[in-house]
Request: fold
Amino acid sequence: MNSPAQYLSHPKLDPALDLILERVIDIPPELVWRAWTDPEMITQWFTPVPWKTIACEIDLRPGGAFKTEMQSPEGQSFPNVGCYLEIIENKKLVWTSAIGPGFRPLVSAPSPAMTAIILLEPLGTGTKYTAIALHKDEQDRKEHEAMGFHEGWGKALDQLVAAMKRI
Reply:
C-alpha cells in the first residue's frame, strides 16, 4: 500500500522543462482544496488582478473538465479547457491543458501547454503549498515563465489565501 507521504512527493522535476512555486501559507489544506475545487471560489481568486476569472466549470474526477474563462483588463475573453488526471482530496490535484475532458486529444492544444500539479501538505495550522507546471519542451517552459508564472501564480495564491480567510 502507498503511504500518504509518497503522494506528496514531487515528480522528478527537470529545471529545463518545469516551473515550481513553493510556499507555506496560513490556511489549512482543506480550505486550499475548497478554493481549487469550488467553481464559485475559483472566480474569486484564480486570475491575478487586474485580470478576472469570469466563469468556471469543474467536473472533479479523472477525465473530468476543468474550464475557466479569463478576462483581460481590456475586456478580451480567454477560455481555457483542461482535463483532470489525478485527484487525492486535500492532498493532490493534477490537470493538463494538453488534453480535454474525457481524455480526448484537443484539436489544438494551447501554447504553452502544461500539466499542473498542486500539492498540499499540512504544516501546523497551515499548508505547505507546491504548484508545479510541467512542459513538453524548453520553449514552452520559457514562454510560460516569460508570461509571468512566478509573479502571476504567486499573486493568485495571495488572492486564494485572502479569499479563504473571508469565508
Remarks:
- Residues 1-8 have pLDDT under 50 and may be disordered.
- Residues 149-166 form the longest helix (18 residues).
- The domain at 18-166 is CATH 3.30.530.20 (Alpha-D-Glucose-1,6-Bisphosphate; Chain A, domain 4).
